[in-house]
Design a protein that fits this description.
Blueprint: H1 2-23, H2 35-44, E1 51-52, H3 54-60, E2 65-68, H4 72-77, E3 84-85, E4 104-108, H5 113-124, E5 129-133, H6 136-142, E6 147-148, E7 154-155, E8 157-159, E9 175-177
């Protein structure tokens, strides 16, 4: 009986340590322009999905599969060119049809929380190269990269989820929609 109790305690401690290791902020995370936004992300995310920065994505944008994990109305306002709508609450694996299991997949949402959760699902489904865009569409626009509307035309507006989150959208000239 005592051996079983010790084994249970050891198992608990090991799983607790593993959880802490999975939630620590990576030291080599991509650069975020606003240090306060970076701090917010560090408290919000679990870092369970590898990160990619906006500059790195911009350099390989046409070579990867990009999926937007926001609501349909957010995606319609604006999204990263080439991104396919994947959704979050209504996520449907059919959007991955034709995407090889070893393909590089980049997910984003407003700030990275929803895309991290979808990334975890993809990892469980066997996708090997899934990345969460650090700072997501907010940081993309904050660093001056273009977004397009539902017709693929460049626009100067981003759906910021709600008024409270809109404070992290700091790009000059961007209209905030919520």
């Amino acid at each position: 009986m005592i051996g079983m109790k010790k084994a249970g305690i050891i198992s608990f401690v090991v799983s607790w340590i593993f959880q802490i290791g999975c939630t620590q902020t990576p030291a080599n995370r991509p650069k975020i322009e606003n240090p306060a936004f970076d701090q917010k992300l560090q408290h919000l995310l679990r870092f369970s999905v590898p990160l990619i920065g906006v500059q790195e994505l911009r350099n390989i944008q046409s070579e990867v599969y990009i999926f937007d994990t926001r609501k349909q109305e957010e995606y319609a306002v604006s999204h990263i060119a080439g991104a396919k709508y994947a959704g979050y609450e209504d996520f449907d694996e059919q959007v991955l049809q034709g995407v090889p299991g070893d393909a590089k997949i980049v997910l984003y949402c407003s700030v990275g929380y929803r895309s991290e959760k979808i990334g975890e699902q993809l990892q469980k489904r066997g996708y090997e190269n899934v990345y969460n865009l650090y700072g997501s569409i907010f940081e993309w626009a904050n660093q001056g990269y273009p977004v397009v509307d539902a017709q693929g035309k460049p626009v100067k507006k981003v759906h910021t989820y709600n008024k409270a989150w809109s404070k992290w959208m700091e790009a000059p000239g961007i209209q905030k929609i919520w």
